[in-house]
Every structure is written in structure tokens, then in C-alpha cells.
Specification:
The chain is an alpha+beta fold. It has 2 domains: 75 residues; 59 residues, no CATH class. Helix content is 51%, strand content 20%. It is elongated, with a radius of gyration of 21 Å.
């Protein structure tokens, strides 16, 4: 598998995971909006107003989650899979003596052909440690020494 094919596969897995999150939050919003409509048909009173207020707060929180997911989607769209750089940057795949990383978005474990890659955002603590590094460079993260073996 070429570096570009590997990047494409990892990026696609990230997109799939984000799509699942997006659909889940959208479903939550739809359920809350339905509950708000049902609540409107209910009788009035303090209980009605309290339940409605709680539903509106839940709707606002779900809306915030949706906006955050949309920001992550935009970040993922910025990942360039066609370029290979000797310096770690957004879109790089890194093999170290401890783990493999894909600098894109924070999604956790991704698996391609029995190899695990950790999807990390460049602003994540380990992402910040990796950015700008080159092959054979070492860095310490949480007391663990990482040596960069390959960069794609």
C-alpha cells in the first residue's frame, strides 16, 4: 500500500467515525425537538415549563456538539493525502518505536491491515509534541521516549 493509499484509508475511517457522531447528534436533536412539540401539546403549569426548559437546554447542548463536529469535519477536509513531507505536519503518518500516528483529528484507534494508528489532532498534547519533528528525532511524552522511525 502506498503512503497516499494509506492516508486515504485512514482519512476515510476518520470521516466514517465523524459521520456516525454527526448522525447520532442529529438524531438526538430530532428526538428533543419532537419532545418539545409533544410538550407544547401538554397542559400548562410549572411542571410543563420546567420540562420544556430542560428540553431547550438539551437542544442547545446538542447544537453545540453538532457545531463542534462540523469544525472537526472542516479540519479533516484540510488533511492533504497527496503530499509526503520529511517534517511532521497535518496529514502525516508517523511510525515510532512505541506507536503509529495519523495527524488529522482526535479519533483514537484506526486499523489498516492489522496495523493500529492513533488519529490525533495537531492541537492535542501528543500532536503538539510531534509537529515539526523529523525522522530519527526523539521526544518524551508522559515519561515515555518515542523515536520517530518513518514519516509519510
Amino acid at each position: 500500500m502506498t503512503p497516499q493509499e494509506l492516508k486515504f484509508e485512514l482519512q476515510q475511517q476518520c470521516k466514517d467515525l465523524i459521520k456516525i457522531r454527526y448522525e447520532s447528534v442529529n438524531k438526538t436533536i430530532a428526538n428533543i425537538e419532537q419532545a418539545l412539540r409533544d410538550e407544547s401539546k401538554s397542559t400548562s403549569g410549572d411542571k410543563h415549563h420546567t420540562e420544556r426548559a430542560m428540553l431547550q437546554i438539551q437542544r442547545e447542548e446538542a447544537g453545540k456538539q453538532l457545531r463542534e463536529i462540523e469544525k472537526v469535519m472542516l479540519q479533516l477536509d484540510k488533511v492533504t493525502i497527496s503530499d509526503v513531507s520529511e517534517t511532521i505536519r497535518l496529514g502525516s503518518i508517523i511510525e515510532t518505536n512505541q506507536a503509529n500516528f495519523f495527524i488529522s483529528i482526535s479519533v483514537g484507534k484506526l486499523k489498516v491491515k492489522d496495523t493500529i494508528y492513533l488519529g490525533v489532532a495537531p492541537v492535542a498534547p501528543i500532536g503538539r509534541c510531534l509537529l515539526g519533528k523529523v525522522k530519527n528525532e526523539q521526544f518524551n511524552f508522559n515519561g515515555v521516549v518515542y523515536k520517530i522511525k518513518k514519516i509519510y
